[in-house]
Amino acid sequence: MTAKSAAAAARATMYGYPRQGQGRELKKAIEGYWKGRVDADALRATATELRRTNWRQLAEAGIHEVPTGDFSCYDHVLDTSVMVGAIPERHRAAVEADALDGYFAMARGTQDAAPLEMTKWFDTNYHYLVPELGPDSAFTADSTQQVAALGQALALGLTARPVLVSPVTYLLLAKPAPGVAADFDPLTLLDRLLPVYAQVLTDLRTAGAEWVQLDEPALVQDRTPAELNAAARAYRDLGGLTDRPKLLVASYFDRLGDALPVLAKAPVEGLALDFTEAAAANLDALAAVGGLPGKRLVAGVVNGRNIWVNDLEKSLATLGTLLGLADRVDVAASCSLLHVPLDATAERDIEPQILRWLAFARQKTAEIVTLAKGLGGGTDTIAAELAANRADLASRAGSALTHDPAVRARTAAVTATDGRRSQPYPERAAAQRAHLRLPLLPTTTIGSFPQTTELRTARADLRAGRIDSAGYEDRIRAEIGEVISFQEKTGLDVLVHGEAERNDMVQYFAEQLTGYLATQHGWVQSYGTRYVRPPILAGDISRPEAMTVRWTTYAQSLTTKPVKGMLTGPVTILAWSFVRDDQPLADTARQVALALRDEVNDLEAAGTSVIQVDEPALRETLPLRACDHPEYLAWATEAFRLTTAGVRPDTQIHTHMCYAEFGDIVQAIDDLDADVISLEAARSHMRVARELAGHGYPREAGPGVYDIHSPRVPGADEAAALLRRGLEAIPAERLWVNPDCGLKTRAWPETRASLENLVTAARTVRTELSAS
């Protein structure tokens, strides 16, 4: 096909779409089901209607091929485990008794069975449920869910493409099941898994699928020759099936690198590549392999992970370069739109001109359609859209919101000394022990306590004008008093104020910093039914006044025990925001760090002796390619030290990380120079403690003994057993006892019982240590 005919054939397509609905109907239905207010049929009906709504909106907007199988009631990787029959033995009876309850049991756990481990989906803030596999794992095909979704879309008269996690990426995401040797490689199960995928593809073909998308994000990471050979073998076998749909292999989040030649030669009909995060690299690699003659190329030229309007002329230039490199070039976002909010037009509190800088899922859909139209019919067909786009880009570039000379001058004046504590850790540790006088195995929590219905109601009443600021603050004071009282009675050693005043750990700070925009309806799924509203970092950052000192100081006035000041770190503020794309991330991180440094210094001046600066996203934001790690880790750790290095030696700096793989950033954790780090460890059975010990980590650490992302209450014996495992790696004088993460999403009854058991476990193990 000529470049001209490839352009004329261009179509708009989509990898995936937000699941929740305009009013988060899915979240409400699922949580209603868990609480017994919604039955299974009503939940399924809500899910079905949301899928139909999404498909109709996409089709009406001009998307020629809608995705199916991207919708999930909890997680698409968990859905894949169900599709291939990879059900953990401890959940098998529950799944067989009731498929829906068993599904949620795998996600959330039960009192008798722990859930699947949860971790970050590559370098995003979406969490997936980790498949558990072993040498005895058996797979069976169950394509019921995928076939049903396809049938619903086809019944609406739509062209639909099922989307599946590929067998290679699925196995690369999996981990050894509990009790299986840690060095077991799930990829050795590929030959056992491929016949199951072959059956699913056959079922989808029978149901009417012309194309099926196999997602391969794992191949944008560094892969060994053996892993690349496994990918080649997988597509040789699947591509060689005689009765199957056409296969579109999709990669995103970064460049394919050595995997591109493998996939280009594979017997599949199409590839989908990311031309936003790695445009130049993927373009060069595609040209180097001679393009994709006779194949379909889906070009992801609209950023699926950020919310700024697309530069349409730049994207059209990229698309024009791709013509001639494939038999057909289609237009898409760089990845599923799962990672952005639904519709910018719902925002009423953002200035209309600034709102035109933003593109959520519906606006990105329009951009994709416009680009496909322009590619196929020429720029004259989209002249009005191009003119409006140029005006919007110019408006943003010239706005006073984006440039503050004072902020830039302060950032430019930063020196290396600003990022170093005044004394080395051993001297600081001695000063902190003398000042804080904590027991062996000190107990604490990560920061937040349950956000009760009363708290949420009070916040809504304040926004609606039903109560005034004084009434709202009275409610916050009462909540802080209850939280402090509970912690003292329970016997925790280092307390927190509970963060009753905070709606979200990033949004709370964003609303008090210059340069940020907040949304009212910009919900994005983090995991399961947990949705967040990432704020929009639009301009230069500064802190006009103290943000946390008032409530921390009030909490400290209620107790003689130390109360931690609680801040979100600069990297996490960036990672959980939609960041500006008009300057390097390192520059933005430095601005945020300086604003937080002022807050840290004010907390210390107000008498706060323990200050926690959370950085759960340090690992999440790690680039997917190892060659890109050093530059990122250099500025990320510098930003943390710049935030915390101005305090006295006897002020104890904590940090916290959760729900990610930490083994490959232990040196960076060390480089933060925090005095204490708390980390998720319950679901991974204290693996991180062993990783810290293997590195020779010299400071104090609190690997979690209570999994807060499950409603189950761990017994004191269970917590004590985890604590003993932690002691195998970390000396008692450096080991803390804490939950995995904050308690915001939990209910008070389970929180009380779990923390009481945690304190009991710590006391039990202290007694054992004193007796040994």
In total, the number of strands is: 20
Biggest β-sheet: strands ordered side by side in the sheet: 1-5-7-8-9-10-11
What is the terminal separation in angstroms? 78 Å
Structural class: alpha/beta
The level of helicity is 40-55%
- Fraction in beta strands: 5-15%
Mean pLDDT: 95
Spatial extent as radius of gyration: 26 Å
Largest sheet: 7 strands, parallel
| Inertia-based shape | globular
Instruction: Tally the helices.
Output: 29
Q: Give the low-pLDDT segments.
A: none
What do these coordinates show?
The relative contact order is 0.09. The model has no long low-confidence stretch (mean pLDDT 95). The protein is built from 29 helices and 20 strands. 44% of the residues lie in helices and 11% in strands. The protein is α/β, with parallel strands linked by helices and 772 residues long. The termini are far apart. The strands form six sheets. A seven-stranded parallel sheet has the order 1-5-7-8-9-10-11. Strands 16-17-18-19-20 form a five-stranded parallel sheet. A two-stranded antiparallel sheet has the order 2-3.
